[in-house]
Design brief:
Layout lengths: L2 H17 L30 E4 L1 E2 L7 H5 L6 E6 L2 E6 L6 E9 L2 E11 L7 E11 L4 E11 L9 E5 L2 E10 L2 E10 L5 E12 L3 H5 L2 E8 L5 E8 L4 E5 L4 E4 L8 E3 L3 E4 L2 E3 L5 E7 L6 E9 L5 E6 L12 E2 L5 E6 L7 E4 L2 E4 L3 E6 L4 E5 L8 E7 L4 E7 L1 E2 L7 E2 L3 E6 L5 E3 L1 E2 L10 E4 L11 E5 L4 E3 L6 E5 L2 E7 L4 E7 L4 E6 L4 E7 L2 E6 L5 E5 L13 E2 L23 E3 L4 E7 L2 E7 L3 E5 L4 E13 L4 E14 L4 E2 L1 E5 L2 E7 L1 E2 L11 E9 L4 E3 L1 E6 L2 E5 L2 E3 L6 E3 L2 E8 L2 E10 L4 E9 L1 H21 L14 H5 L4 H4 L2 H15 L7 E2 L3 E5 L5 E10 L4 E12 L2 E12 L12 E2 L6
Parallel strand pairs: 35-38, 46-59, 48-53, 52-56, 59-65
Antiparallel strand pairs: 1-16, 2-12, 3-4, 4-45, 5-6, 6-7, 7-8, 9-10, 10-11, 11-12, 13-14, 14-15, 15-16, 17-18, 19-20, 20-21, 21-22, 23-24, 24-27, 25-26, 27-28, 29-30, 30-33, 31-32, 33-34, 36-37, 37-38, 39-40, 40-41, 41-42, 43-44, 44-45, 47-50, 48-49, 49-51, 50-51, 51-52, 54-55, 55-57, 57-58, ...
């Protein structure tokens, strides 16, 4: 009989015997649950427990004779933008890093190579080496590990950095017809073996065990300094070992078996062991006899002696795979979520089922049920635990299920609640739109158990019971105090980092054709899919700075560049007029006076199809609150492009003064109509009634450069961050984000930092361009062609939320285009390149879609939008205002402005 089946029969018999013990009803008045659950007396299991000492050694990991006779591993590096490429051997797939780990400023790779045997046989060998990389110094060391006969490939390699001086890996060798597993602890400075746990598992090559069993999972316990102290190792058929790296002992589990479940080739194998943080005990979820179906029966087991301390069962419940058992950090409590059997209670994946819970059981460390949380019976509310807040409190997310235009259900608006296990009190948190509303913000990460449609993290204020959350859903991990989120979709693998200073998400990377394998501080480590090479890229690429800490830019970085079209000198254009009058072309109304841009005699003008053009000399006129007027200065040979004959100057209030920003192009559609360099002037009006211009200062190779204005090729709106201007513009032919800090005493803006955003724009651009075409297809624009496969109507509709679909501007466009098509006059409109795309503080993409309404004429429409990633696919989450240019060609869409606030 198959050994696996024997193990399963023994487990089933044990469960049946355990569950026939009398139940104990627990009193809710004593802090216990009002919903009784079956409980059993603890029962010891048979089987010897063997404690084996580790061997202390300073030898090499592999046999020197074996390793030295085979080719050594060669690694090299090649400089790339922002880092370097780690080249393993010749870059072919014959060498492959099968495991990586990072700790502090160090990364370790376990590299596997297929080599021909040195004897005359056709057998292949597998050689393993450790590559230790310190990316900051670009230092690389190669340490030989071991060599083994090719075979038994269903293996999960285990590699773990214990501390800054030691790394652990599992070594396999074949001796006398047996496959032998050793745990090796290697010195990271010299490559010698510090300690080894030899022969912790020995398998005969001609046994069923060799063909059916393999390593599955490793669970780790950590010391206070974040070093690894213990490891609980499991196999597919249920063997377990506990390794103690402090006491140098390994504990064997005797005859007790805790099989994983899965179906090789379709369901990825997965252990059903949920250990406490210190690994002294674990909860095991039993499986059915087919080993690919989980049951609703659990046992709490002591790790050292395998004593069954308690059992738990949940009747009439759906599969309880995920989130499974989640312990608090202290290891004193754990919870289990479940829902009644039936459809619509969760979402299934290959080897798990994400539960939309209707009940949550809370247990103490001995497996005794202490609380059960259920929503009101008539509410239809679902809930999941977001994470433990402390030893006695959890953060709950409650929600109703929303059907979508796609097949899967999603969580509706999530309300966060705090549940106190001692008092049983449930307190609702208020969702806020601005994180600054939290007086004492505390970061709460999503727990390590699996969940569906939950955000990666939230910020809470436990005193005021408020919560702020981004919209980001993805894999969250941290390195050296930095919090990262991997955001996967059909067209991107974007990585974000939480900026603690600014309290917002910032785009980090999106490498096409590569997979992020690990992170070490600011270093991102990617594997190339086409080779075995790795890219080490540093998130923050330092810019050369002068002695005062200012970034050094090329001389003339912000000079104004003329478009070259001097329309005012075209005598053949009868639209060009010259005025003898003085006119106010721009005006800013401050709290402390008015600033006007007034034309001087001889101003030339031209009315374009959709904009107003002016050229000439102008003066800056200030009038204080008492009506006293004086001129601040003149601006010579100025070209203006405005949406109306008189345009507003932007006014930004600060304490004690107002900042006024004057730009020569104040035309909302300028970004898609031959955009040229814009001029930016800045002025201040103080509470005392003073008005003065500001200069712009930056460091260049020739020293400090001062300008009355800066020429910028603007990529998006100018933002204010405290007392700094955030400007997106090209510098040296590359798009950058620039920070200009205001020094009000010196009447100066200083360029204090810049960040190259080319990769970010390209990453976001791939998404927004694709969705611009999808928007065009939805609107029935035949000219909206793309390399993307055309979707049918149902597939396109699935990309829009109800809010986006019902947006008045979107509906007007769709209705107008549909009406034209119905009378046999299909529109000649087509999508322009989207403009102003950026990632907002919530992790969404904000973009303005542009549509050319009349082919070859250049009359455009702007539609604001938010794209949000839901279930690995970007969707049109919301549309905002629709604005169209004034034209005589399309009366129905002539000069529309339909306002609608974007909601994230």
């Amino acid at each position: 009989m198959n050994k696996q089946l024997i193990y399963l029969i023994i487990i089933s018999i044990c469960i049946i015997m355990l569950l026939i013990f009398p139940t104990l009803k627990k009193d809710a008045d004593g802090g216990k649950s009002t919903s009784p659950i079956e409980s059993v007396e603890p029962s010891a299991t048979a089987g010897a427990t063997e404690i084996q000492e580790a061997i202390v050694s300073q030898s090499k990991a592999g046999s020197p004779e074996q390793l030295n006779n085979y080719p050594q591993l060669n690694v090299d590096s090649e400089n790339i933008d922002g880092g370097f490429k780690l080249k393993i051997d010749d870059g072919s797939l014959l060498a492959n890093s099968v495991a990586e780990d990072s700790f502090g400023d160090m990364v370790v790779h376990l590299v596997e190579r297929q080599l021909s045997s040195l004897d005359e046989s056709s057998a292949m060998k597998l050689r393993y080496d450790l590559v230790v990389v310190h990316p900051e110094q670009k230092d690389m060391k190669v340490y030989p590990a071991y060599i083994v006969d090719y075979g038994n490939e269903a293996i999960s390699h285990k590699l773990k950095i214990i501390d800054d001086k030691q790394v652990m890996f599992i070594k396999r060798t074949v001796e006398n017809g047996s496959l032998i597993y050793d745990l090796v602890i290697m010195d990271l400075e010299m490559g010698g073996v510090n300690r080894a746990f030899p022969v912790f598992w020995k398998v005969d090559l001609d046994s069923e065990e060799y063909n059916e069993d393999f390593l599955v999972s490793a669970h780790y316990a950590y010391s206070n300094d974040n070093t690894t102290s213990q490891m609980l190792l499991t196999t597919f058929l249920g063997k377990t070992w506990l390794f103690d790296f402090d006491t140098l002992k390994v504990v064997h589990g005797g005859s007790n078996m805790y099989p994983a479940y899965g179906d090789i080739g379709s369901k990825a194998p997965r252990a059903l062991i949920y250990p406490a943080p210190n690994l002294d005990r674990f909860v095991y979820q039993f499986i059915e006899s087919n080993q690919i179906t989980t049951s609703n029966h659990f046992a709490l087991v002591a790790t050292l002696n395998r004593e069954v301390m308690n059992t738990m069962s949940i009747d009439n419940a759906m599969a309880l795979t995920d989130p499974g058992i989640v312990w608090n950090a202290e290891g004193t409590r754990f919870f289990q979520e479940y829902a009644e059997s039936g459809s619509g209670k969760g979402v299934g994946f290959d080897n798990s089922y994400m539960v939309f819970a209707e009940s949550i059981n809370f247990y103490d460390r001995n497996g005794d049920l202490t609380r059960t949380l259920k929503p009101a019976s008539s509410s239809g509310e679902k809930m999941n635990v977001y994470n433990w807040l402390d030893e006695e409190r959890v953060l709950i997310e409650t929600y109703s299920l929303l059907p979508t235009v796609v097949s899967e259900l999603h969580k509706g608006k999530v309300i966060y609640k705090e549940y106190n296990l001692q008092s049983g009190k449930l307190t609702t948190y208020k969702n806020v739109e601005d994180i600054t509303e939290l007086a004492s913000p505390k970061l709460v990460l999503l727990h390590k158990g699996q969940t569906f449609d939950s955000k990666s993290f939230v910020w809470i204020d436990q005193t005021s019971k408020r919560v702020w959350s981004p919209d980001m859903k993805g894999q969250t991990f941290s390195s050296n105090g930095q919090l990262y989120i991997q955001h996967n979709s059909e067209v991107s693998q974007m990585l974000f980092r939480w900026n603690e200073e600014l309290k917002q998400l910032e785009w980090v990377a999106d490498e096409i054709g590569m997979d992020l394998r690990t992170v070490s501080g600011d270093w991102l480590i990617y594997s190339e899919r086409s080779s075995n090479n790795f890219l080490y890229k540093k998130f923050s690429v330092e810019v050369k700075q002068n002695a005062d800490g200012f970034p050094i830019l090329p001389l003339g970085a912000f000079d104004w560049v003329s478009s070259g079209r001097e329309w005012w000198n075209d005598s053949r254009d009868d639209r060009v007029q010259e005025s003898k009058e003085q006119s106010v072309r721009m005006e800013g109304r401050s709290r402390y006076g008015k600033l006007k841009l007034r034309s001087l005699t001889g101003e030339k003008s031209s009315k374009e199809v959709t904009s107003y053009m002016y050229y000439g000399d102008y003066e800056i006129e200030f009038t204080n609150v008492q009506g006293k007027r004086h001129v601040l200065g003149e601006l010579k040979q100025l070209e203006l492009k405005l949406a109306s004959p008189k345009q507003n100057i932007r006014v930004i209030p600060f304490e004690g003064y107002d900042l006024l920003l004057l730009q020569t192009i104040e035309f909302p559609f300028s970004e898609i109509h031959g955009r040229s360099t814009n001029k930016l002037y800045a002025y201040v009006i103080t509470r005392e009634g003073q008005a003065f211009p500001l200069k712009f200062q930056y460091a260049s190779a020739d020293g400090m450069t001062n300008l009355d204005m800066i020429g910028i090729e603007q990529k998006g709106p100018i933002e204010i961050r405290e007392e700094a201007l955030i400007v997106e513009s090209y510098v040296g032919n590359l798009p950058h984000e620039l920070e200009w800090k205001l020094d009000i005493k010196e009447r100066m803006f200083n360029l204090t930092s810049l960040h190259n955003r080319l990769a970010e724009y390209e990453s976001i651009g791939r998404i927004t361009e694709l969705y611009s075409y999808r928007l065009g297809h939805t609107l029935g624009l035949d000219m909206a062609d793309s390399t993307d496969e055309h979707m049918n109507e149902d597939q396109l509709r699935a990309l829009y939320t109800e809010s986006a679909w019902n947006n008045p501007g979107f509906q007007i466009l769709k209705s107008d285009f549909d009406a034209s098509a119905a009378v046999g006059e299909p529109t000649r409109a087509f999508p322009y390149q989207p403009v102003g795309a950026r990632v907002d503080e919530y992790g969404n993409i904000r973009v303005t879609f542009a549509i050319n309404l009349v082919n070859a004429v250049g009359v455009a429409a702007y539609l604001e939008a938010i794209l949000k990633l839901e279930d690995y696919e970007w969707r049109f989450y919301d549309f905002g205002a629709l604005e169209t240019e004034r034209t005589d060609y399309l009366q129905s869409l002539n000069g529309l402005l339909i306002k609608d606030d974007l909601v994230h």
